[in-house]
Design goal:
Low-confidence stretches: none
Distance between the termini: 53 Å
CATH architecture of the largest domain: 2-Layer Sandwich
Largest sheet: 6 strands, mixed
Mean pLDDT: 87
Number of strands: 11
Structural class: alpha/beta
Number of domains: 4
CATH class of the largest domain: Alpha Beta
Length: about 525
C-alpha cells in the first residue's frame, strides 16, 4: 500500500478528494492532508509519503516550490499536480521537475483514479526491478565465470597458495599447470572515466582480446581494481617481441572501438612455480610508468628492469623541495604551484624512470611537512596511505600535476584557517548566516549553499544531525525577532512582517500563530491588557 499526502487550500476540494481516495483504500492510504504548502513542507519529510498530490496556487508556498523542496529530502517521492489553471507554463515546469501527472480542477474521480493507477504502476515497476527474480536466474548462468573471477582476483593477492585453494581452482576449471605464464593489465589512460564508458571499455576489451587469442593461446581474463587483467599460459616460452606487437595492435583496436586511449602493462615471463601476487605487482609497476612514457603504450616489466651498465639515475636538488615547502608555508599560492609544475615537468622523462616515484614521494613529504595540522588535512582530504595509493594510481603527467595542485591548495587553505582565530563550526556558520540574512524574503538554502560553498545535501545533513531543517531555522529566527519587535515597539504588523522577511502579512500572521499559538494581533492585545 502506498502512502499519499494531499495538499490544497480549498476545503471543499480537500473533502471531495478524501472521499474519492477512500474508494481507492485497497492500494493507497492517506497519511496527511494540509491546507497550504508551508504546513506540508514542515511535515512531509517525517511522513515519507510515496505520492504527493498538490495544488499549484496556494498561499505562502506554491505547489512547484513545495515539490522542489520535498525532492531534496525525498527524491523517490512521486508527484501529481492539481490545478485550476490550465497553464502551459505550469505544465512545462511540472515536466521539468519530473511530475508524474497534471490534473485540472474540478477534480474528477476517474481522472484521479487513472492518474494514481499510472503512478502505482511506476512505483510497482521500480520495486519489481529491484527484486526481479528473472534477473537473478540469469546471473546463475554466469556462476562459473563469477567463481573464476573471484578465484583469479584472490590468486593475485595471496602470498601462499594452500592446498584447499588449489582444489577449488581445479573444481572451478582453472588449469594453471602450464610451464610458462605471463600476466597482462590493460587500463584506460583517462583519469576516472564515467562508469558507462568504463563498462563499455571492459566489454570491448574482453571481446577484442578473446577474438585475438581464443584458440591460439590459453588465457583467463577477469576484472580487478577496475582494470582488465589476463593471465596468459603456454607450453612454450613466449616470444615477448611478437606478443608486444600483438598487444599493441589490440590497444589500437580498443581505441578505435571505444574512442578511449588505453595502455598495457606486461609482467616478465615466468617459468615453473609462479608467485602470482609478485607477477601482478610487476605488471602493475610496468603500467605505472605510463606517466613518464606516455599513454597508449605497451610497457614491459622486463624492458624497464633492463638497465644498461653505467646508466645515471635522475636526481633532484634537495633545495627544490625546501623551496616548495617554504612557499607553501609563507609564500604565494601561484608561486608554489608553479614550482611544483616545474619539478614534475623536469622529471617526466625516461631518464627518471627509476627515481620518478621516489622524487614524487619526496615532493609529497615536503608538502605534508608544510601543513600546520596534518590531522585536519587527513580528515578533510585523505590519509597518508590513501594519498600514496592515489599517487601510484595516476595515469598521466597532467593528472599528477592536478593531484599535487589539489594537495598543495588544501594545505594552504588549512594553514590559513588555522591562523585565523575563532574557527567556526559548519553549523555555527550556517546559523550566523541565517541570523544575518533572515530579513531577506527570498532567502533560500541555495543562497546559503553558494555563500558558504557547501552542497545542499551537506547542509541538510548538518541540520538534520542538529535536529532541525533550513525552513525551521529561518522560521525560528524570524519569529524570535518578530516577538521582540511586537513586544518592544509600536510598529505596524505589516512593517514588522517586512522587517523579518515576510512580504505577505497574512503569511506572517499564519507563521506567527503556528509558532506561538497566538496571532500577532492577539499577542499585542494581551500585552496591552497586562
Amino acid at each position: 500500500m502506498y502512502k499519499i499526502v494531499f495538499v490544497d487550500d480549498e476545503e471543499g476540494v480537500r473533502e471531495r478528494a478524501l472521499m474519492m481516495l477512500a474508494k481507492l483504500s485497497s492500494d493507497f492510504s492517506v497519511v496527511g492532508v494540509f491546507q497550504n504548502g508551508y504546513d506540508a513542507l514542515l511535515n512531509i519529510p517525517s511522513l515519507e509519503p510515496d505520492i504527493v498530490i498538490t495544488d499549484i496556487k496556494m498561499p505562502f508556498i506554491s505547489g512547484i516550490e513545495l515539490i522542489k523542496e520535498v525532492k531534496i529530502d525525498l527524491p523517490l517521492t512521486q508527484f501529481i499536480i492539481l490545478s485550476g489553471y490550465d497553464s502551459f507554463d505550469y505544465a512545462k515546469e511540472a515536466i521539468t521537475l519530473g511530475v508524474n501527472e497534471y490534473l485540472t480542477k474540478p477534480l474528477v474521480y476517474e481522472e484521479l483514479k487513472d492518474a494514481l493507477i499510472k503512478v502505482k504502476e511506476t512505483l510497482d515497476k521500480q520495486i519489481q526491478n529491484e527484486r526481479d527474480i528473472s534477473f537473478l536466474k540469469e546471473r546463475v548462468q554466469y556462476s562459473l565465470r563469477l567463481l573464476q573471477n573471484e578465484d583469479l582476483q584472490k590468486l593475485i593477492t595471496i602470498k601462499d597458495m594452500r592446498e584447499n585453494f588449489k582444489e577449488k581452482l581445479e573444481k572451478d576449471k582453472l588449469d594453471l599447470s602450464y610451464p610458462f605464464q605471463l600476466l597482462l593489465i590493460i587500463d584506460s589512460d583517462m583519469e576516472d572515466p564515467p562508469y558507462e564508458q568504463l563498462d563499455f571499455l571492459h566489454l570491448s576489451t574482453r571481446q577484442i582480446f578473446e577474438e585475438a587469442f581464443t584458440g591460439k593461446i590459453q588465457f583467463y581474463s577477469f576484472l580487478y581494481d577496475e582494470q582488465f587483467v589476463a593471465l596468459l599460459l603456454s607450453n612454450d616460452k613466449f616470444d615477448e617481441q611478437s606478443l608486444s606487437r600483438k598487444i599493441n595492435e589490440l590497444l589500437a583496436k580498443i581505441k578505435r572501438n571505444t574512442s578511449l586511449s588505453v595502455s598495457a602493462g606486461l609482467s616478465e615471463c615466468v617459468e615453473g612455480m609462479v608467485n602470482y601476487r609478485k607477477v601482478y605487482r610487476h605488471a602493475k609497476r610496468a603500467l605505472e610508468f605510463r606517466t613518464v612514457m606516455g599513454g597508449g603504450s605497451v610497457l614491459s616489466f622486463t624492458d624497464l628492469e633492463r638497465n644498461e651498465s653505467g646508466e645515471i639515475i635522475g636526481k633532484v636538488d634537495e633545495n627544490e623541495y625546501k623551496n616548495i615547502s617554504y612557499l607553501l608555508s609563507y609564500g604565494k599560492q601561484e608561486n608554489a604551484l608553479a614550482s611544483i609544475d616545474k619539478l614534475i615537468s623536469s622529471i617526466s622523462d625516461p631518464s627518471f624512470k627509476d627515481s620518478y616515484y621516489f622524487i614524487l614521494l619526496n615532493l609529497m613529504d615536503s608538502i605534508l611537512k608544510s601543513c600546520i595540522s596534518l590531522k585536519e588535512l587527513y580528515s578533510r582530504f585523505n590519509s597518508q596511505i590513501e594519498l600514496t595509493q592515489e599517487l601510484y594510481s595516476l595515469k598521466t603527467k597532467q593528472a599528477t600535476i592536478n593531484f599535487f595542485h589539489s594537495l598543495a591548495t588544501k594545505v594552504m587553505e588549512i594553514n590559513k584557517e588555522k591562523r585565523m582565530e575563532g574557527l567556526e563550526s559548519s553549523f555555527d556558520r550556517i546559523k550566523k548566516y541565517i541570523e544575518a540574512n533572515y530579513a531577506n524574503s527570498n532567502l533560500s538554502i541555495v543562497d546559503l549553499a553558494n555563500e558558504l560553498s557547501f552542497s545542499i545535501s551537506y547542509i541538510t545533513t548538518i541540520l538534520k544531525r542538529n535536529g532541525t531543517t533550513f525552513t525551521k531555522m529561518v522560521t525560528k529566527e524570524r519569529m524570535e525577532n518578530a516577538f521582540h519587535l511586537l513586544n518592544s515597539t509600536d510598529e505596524r504588523i505589516v512593517s514588522i512582517a517586512k522587517e523579518v522577511g515576510y512580504s505577505d502579512p497574512y503569511y506572517f500572521s499564519h507563521c506567527f500563530k503556528k509558532f506561538y499559538k497566538v496571532s500577532p494581533d492577539e499577542f499585542r492585545k494581551n500585552k496591552e491588557n497586562k
